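Weekly sync, protein design subgroup
Attendees: M.S., D.O., the rotation student, P.L. (late)

Item 1: inverse folding check
M.S. brought a backbone from last month's batch and wanted to see whether the design step gives back something sensible before we order anything. D.O. pointed out we never logged the input encoding, so this time it goes straight into the notes. Structure tokens as presented (351 positions):
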């Protein structure tokens, strides 16, 4: 099912299409539940793309339309809209909470090309706190397609965050990009800028001589120290517009909390309603973290041996082996979960 409608004028600015939209209804998708994908775009002639179809997989959601341009199409910039219904598989992986959404054009005699891309969140509960730190490739994430040479430094202050992203160029030279934006629910969206011609390591200060808007970065946080990132780079304009994109799973890099079984060790305050539990967690022979004085134990489950810290789930039990909290939003400095009664439980590192 598809429809084509017309809407207000759009504009072209450099390589970006002003007003280009790619979205879903609802904004957060639920496994097994129906949803609809919308795209709004402007075509450089009167023969707008049509015959839209939607394919859904655990790797991506692709809305594909067909370019029907011909010699008799009028050279008039024409806005259009497409909408297609689908649903996520019921057996969607429980640890995959974001998926790239692509709008792709199919042209006769040439390959498919991406015209728009974004990330869509999976699940009904937005994630909240995001920890400042260095993030790198998450080897157990849904999109572990970058190595340790690719990373992001995230600085969170209130509802805003700044990002420095470091990559290598085609010649193997390190480059870095800067951007900042506002965190809304579990999403951070910003433009990445490449700065050139600035101060050298030991030289006198000089401002950068060149600032290049290089890419758009969209982050979906899945926990205080894990996120999925989509980097998009528009190229060309009009009918030749293509959006190159890459999706990456990232995890916070631990540099100061010791080996794997001690990274959540130390002093914590666990807040359950009006009550506060003070914990001093150390590692035992089984690899669990225990408070020897009070009898509490924090048992963390990993997706696989050698998974990057922090773990995805941890269970806190008391001296009688009763579950006190089940944490599913885990950072190196903050954890969030639920008690058996459904109350919110927050743990904050004290040292």
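Designed sequence read out in the meeting:
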């Amino acid at each position: 099912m598809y429809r084509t409608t017309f809407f207000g004028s759009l504009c072209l600015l450099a390589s970006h299409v002003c007003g280009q939209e790619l979205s879903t209804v609802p904004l957060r998708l639920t496994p097994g539940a129906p949803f609809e994908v919308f795209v709004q775009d402007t075509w450089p002639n009167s023969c707008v793309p049509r015959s839209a179809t939607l394919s859904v997989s655990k790797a991506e959601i692709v809305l594909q339309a067909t370019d029907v341009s011909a010699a008799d199409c009028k050279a008039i910039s024409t806005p259009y809209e497409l909408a297609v219904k689908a649903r996520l598989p019921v057996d969607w992986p429980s640890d995959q909470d974001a998926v790239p959404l692509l709008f792709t054009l199919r042209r006769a005699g040439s390959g498919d090309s991406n015209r728009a891309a974004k990330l869509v969140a999976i699940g009904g509960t937005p994630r909240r706190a995001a920890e400042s730190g260095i993030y790198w490739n998450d080897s157990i994430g849904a999109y572990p397609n970058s190595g340790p040479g690719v990373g992001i430094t995230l600085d969170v202050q209130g509802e805003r965050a700044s990002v420095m992203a470091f990559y290598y160029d085609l010649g193997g030279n390190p480059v870095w990009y800067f951007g900042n934006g506002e965190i809304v629910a579990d999403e951070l969206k910003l433009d990445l800028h490449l700065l050139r011609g600035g101060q050298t390591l030991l030289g006198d200060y000089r401002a950068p001589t060149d600032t290049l808007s290089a890419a758009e970065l969209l982050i979906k946080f899945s926990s205080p120290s894990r996120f999925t990132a989509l980097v998009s780079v528009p190229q060309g304009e009009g009918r030749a517009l293509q959006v190159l994109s890459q999706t990456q799973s990232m995890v916070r890099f631990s540099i100061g909390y010791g080996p794997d079984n001690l990274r959540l060790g130390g002093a914590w305050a666990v807040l359950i309603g009006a009550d506060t539990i003070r914990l001093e967690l150390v590692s035992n022979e089984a690899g669990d973290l225990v408070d020897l004085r009070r009898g509490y134990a924090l048992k963390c489950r990993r997706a696989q041996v050698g998974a990057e810290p922090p773990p995805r789930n941890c269970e806190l039990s008391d001296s009688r082996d009763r579950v006190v909290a089940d944490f599913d939003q885990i950072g190196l400095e903050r954890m969030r979960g639920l008690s058996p009664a459904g109350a919110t439980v927050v743990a904050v590192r004290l040292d």
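Discussion: Confidence is low (pLDDT under 50) at residues 1-19. The longest strand covers residues 210-223.
Action: P.L. to compare against the previous round before Friday.
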